[in-house]
Amino acid sequence: MEKSASAVHSEGHGLEPDLKNEAMQATTEQAKQGSEDEHNLAPLEAIRKYPRTIFWCLVISMCVVMEGYDTNLLGNFYAYPGFAKKYGHYNAATDNYQLTAAWQAGLSNSSSVGSFFGTLLNGYLVAKFGHVRVLLGSLVTLSAFIFVVFFAPSIEVLVVGEILCGLPWGIFATTAPAYASEVLPMSLRVYLTSWTNMCFIIGQLISAGIMAGLVSNTTQWSYRIPFAIQWVWPVILIPIIWFAPDTPWHLVRQGHHDDAEKSLRTLRPKATDAEIQQALGLIIYTNNLEQQLEVGTSYWDCFKGFELRRTEIACVVFAGQVLSGLNFAYNSTYFFQQVGLNSDQTYRLNVGGNGMALFATIVSWLLVMPYVGRRTAYLWGMAAMFVVLYLIGGLNARTEDDNIGMAQAVLTLVWTFIFQLSAGQLGWALPAEIGSTRLRQKTICLARNAYAIVSIIASVLQPYFMNPTKWNLKGYTGFVWGSTSLLMFVWAYFRLPETKDRTFEEIDLLFAKRVPARLFSSYKIEAFEEDSADSKTEV
Question: Which domains does the chain have, with CATH numbers?
Fold first, then answer.
């Protein structure tokens, strides 16, 4: 029989046997009480109790605003007159300037390529330096790389600049949800991990508003001003994040228990000494439990044993954002242009789409997340998006109707609303919950890179689907992404577990016992029974 988690915790501290037993009992009891507190803490009570923790999560996640802002710029610059004139070529067939499908694909993928490598690097950097120092270094680096895109004299230089900017963006996007999951109580976990998605929306909404205001400007400043605005965020965020505490989970993994306690006191100034010790005890207990279950800390460990299942779920859930039709139906100004809408209609709809995304996120927080499980929301969101995308494809057959283009555009707004109720939120929240605590950062990084790989493929294909000089599918593209949404629905039904109302040590044991995905919500488990972790393959 393997040693219990509390026994692992007591080894190596030079305690006499009786003192060891007392220490084990104290840690287990503190962890058990800490877990009960987590289950009993309602969201509104948690908000009142831990306002400083929420503040730091909001600040750390604001780094992601920059990525949402810039990705929205590039995706919509293709139909932007000033940008197309600078970096594109005149197309006699459409009587306007167009970027070729190849350069559209290259630009769309450039920041994703940089983000891919920045994300991989982040898994190592955070483990060594912690979240806060890595974020500060990334903000400084990004400030330098923005000069490249701002002064880019050619599309080739612009691509290089976007690759360089993608490096820190990959760090921002994977650090924010990990930080939130490690400092928040369970009842607030899904809200602030998915807040990362809200920051994308905020960035997209800001860029959509700026672009709508500059669309009639035909000078170089019509696209340079939007690039220059990116310098605002580092100036604001660097002096604030300088004072942010690192996460107690990271500090415990490093063996710095005293520093972890100090971090908890900084994050939870209203907590009593007993509550601090119970929270710390739960962190130590969970970390030791995972050590007992032979959970390592390297990327390779993400693919060993039952961690492989956790990595698969995190990666597919995140990639599912793309497979649900993201590149086609979200911020789809190029699609609007191809179905006959003018520039004014296109950019007004773009602002409306981002507003719809923001509204849907708030609805999700208030009406979906408190009452509906993660699995249920993700599963039926995919089903609804499949229906909407097939409707868009079906409408394309009625080309003789002048109002069809507007109807298809409105359906993309409906798709956006459904997306943000489901995969848009949970694509961020679930990877931060699914991975073990010792592999959390690396699991999120792998999930984000699975998203990046699928996004690169989609970004290469999407211009060919839509470009009038290539396949020119227009609304028929909805059939393509509707089919991938249906495949995601089938996968989620069989593979996606329910993590709502589960603490991290409970999730560890559910995976260790190989519990089927459909039984996660109802499976009874005693996380603090001494031998509960011994049966790794029990179902």
Answer: 24-254+303-519 (1.20.1250.20)
